[in-house]
Design goal:
It is built from one helix and six strands, in the order αββββββ. It is of the alpha+beta class.
Length: about 130
């Protein structure tokens, strides 16, 4: 009977290790980085696709003759939205908007600014320029 005790303890230890493993969080998704070029009448992309929970960085390059921006009115997201701020000399005015967009970044003529956020729900979300 003594021969079975070490084997039993070894099996018991293995079961404890398996049980303690628990559910681990899935690995974090890598940052998706998208370069988006704005001209005076369009963006160079009409669709941006990422996975739910995947951090997204949009680099808005303004090749237009006016200041342009990138906005999404409502999009479920986790954490904060981080956008580069334009300098105070900018005349970017969004006072005509009834509500602030969830995601927004503006870029001066010939400039580039970025915004980062992590979408938390699948869906189609319209993006547009408020200028």
């Amino acid at each position: 009977m003594k021969r079975f005790i070490p084997l039993f303890l070894l099996l018991l230890g293995a079961l404890v290790l398996v049980a303690c493993g628990g559910e681990s969080e899935p690995p974090a998704l890598p940052l998706a980085e998208v370069d988006l070029v704005a001209t005076d009448i369009a963006y160079d992309k009409d669709r941006i696709e990422v996975m739910v929970g995947q951090p997204l960085k949009i680099n808005l390059q303004n090749e237009g003759a006016l200041e342009h921006d990138f906005s999404i009115m409502e999009v479920p997201h986790t954490g904060e939205v981080h956008a580069e701020e334009m300098h105070e000399e900018s005349d970017h005015d969004m006072s005509h908007m009834e509500m602030d967009p969830d995601v927004h970044v503006a870029s001066p003529i010939g400039g580039s600014h970025s915004v980062e956020f992590t979408p938390s729900e699948a869906g189609e979300y319209e993006f547009f320029c408020t200028v």
